[in-house]
Design a protein that fits this description.
Distance between the termini: 29 Å
Largest sheet: 5 strands, mixed
CATH architecture: 2-Layer Sandwich
Order of helices and strands: EHHEEEE
Number of domains: 1
Number of helices: 2
CATH topology: YaeB-like fold
Structural class: alpha+beta
Shape: globular
């Protein structure tokens, strides 16, 4: 299994760091990217597909969401889809960021 990052996911990580900067917090994008990849590489998709299905306007169909907590923070929302045996990361959001 391979984790693929769409441009929208990378952009969302950069926006997350900008948002954190306005709150005088340190950047987290690089660390979060590593944790997301680590999480999905541990999953066995033949047994179970983590998360639940969601529908967001102007986003791909068959989208799923999983909540990932980094340390003691609130869980980050990771939007992804399964394509074959690969995971395609679409978007990452913090729960307190502006709604989609």
């Amino acid at each position: 299994m391979k984790v693929k990052w769409r441009a929208s996911a990378v952009t969302s990580l950069l926006e997350l760091d900008k948002w954190r900067k306005t709150l005088e917090l340190t950047p987290i994008a690089k660390h979060l990217k590593g944790k997301v990849e680590e999480y999905f590489l541990k999953q066995d998709l033949s047994l179970y597909v983590p998360g639940r299905q969601v529908a967001i306007k102007n986003m791909p169909t068959d989208l799923r969401i999983v909540l990932l907590s980094i340390g003691k923070s609130e869980p980050y929302k990771v939007f992804y889809r399964v394509s074959g045996y690969d995971i395609e990361i679409i978007l990452i959001r913090h729960p307190r960021q502006k709604q989609l």
